[in-house]
Amino acid sequence: MYRPTLLDVLAARRRIAPYVWRTPLHRHLALDRLLEAEVYVKHENHQKLGAFKVRGGINLMAQLVATEKLRGVTTASSGNHGQSIAYAAGVFGVPALVVVPENANPGKVEAIRNLGAEVHFYGPHFDVARQHAEKLAQEKGYRYIHAVNEPLLIAGVATYSLEILEDLPDAEVLIVPIGGGSGACGACIVGKSLNPRLQVIGVQAEKAPAAYLSWKAGRIVEAPMETEAEGLATATGYELTQGILRDLLDDFVLVSEAEMQQAIVLHLEKTHNLTEHAGAASLAAALKLRDRLRGKKVVLVMSGGNVSLQHLRAALAAAS
């Protein structure tokens, strides 16, 4: 399968520019003191739809041929990817069907519907929903959009890493949440092209470690998936992203549910930003790696801010 390059990312930036925002890279002095480092946050929670995925959806939908647009598209999502495809489909006039797990974040499901896509509930988690979406595509003739093994999505989401290195070219460490791995792959492709000394570190939930275990083993591994962090909730590794990560990712760490909850509350307190579990995972990882990061220029990717009220209340209760 084709691997995106820096040239693909540069083309994607031009393609998506009319439809997405350049998000801020803010230095937060309270995080500096907490981590004893120079700490910046890439605020993809300020992006349209509240998450980074919209970049990939626009890049893909803009390149569909006329027959694909007429047939419509289908995909599976735990939330943010589905919003991205629904939004992009609306921009380009394409019918869209999004399959979500039965326990999907209600706010994200409502947003997908509000953006004009049809929603089907299926299965206990993302990978079961994904298999159903693939079946529907075969039966109905939709253009199937794999949420991970799709070069056009990776090139699109990689544009946020391009913005990071334009704003902070001497960044030393970039910490990126990983579910399927499209955002981390984008960070690796851009980072290693523009600043080979940049360390890119991935982070996933301990209770959904399939990408981490696949990276460690050098082969695709399946694993139980029980995390509350729907943005990190995949039950298997994926060929395209794992190949890129094996070649380019510098390190990979796991964080607990409690550590992500703590990071959600710390972001509220220290940066005054609302983030979901996946968006908080980069700070949770930085806290685990504090000794290693001391004195460095560190960028944390806040991948999304679409936290449910239930998850927010639980995080606040755990902190009290």
What does this structure look like?
- The protein is of the alpha/beta class and 320 residues long.
- It folds into two domains: 215 residues, Rossmann fold; 96 residues, Rossmann fold (3-Layer(aba) Sandwich).
- 49% of the residues lie in helices and 15% in strands.
- It contains 16 helices and ten strands.
- The strands form two sheets. The protein has a six-stranded mixed β-sheet, sandwiched between helices. Strands 5-4-3-6 form a four-stranded parallel β-sheet, with helices on both faces.
- β4, α6 and β5 form a beta-alpha-beta unit.
- α5 runs parallel beside α6 and α8 crosses α10.
- The longest helix is centred in the middle third of the chain and has 15 residues.
- It is globular, with a radius of gyration of 18 Å.
- The termini are far apart.
- The model has no long low-confidence stretch (mean pLDDT 96).
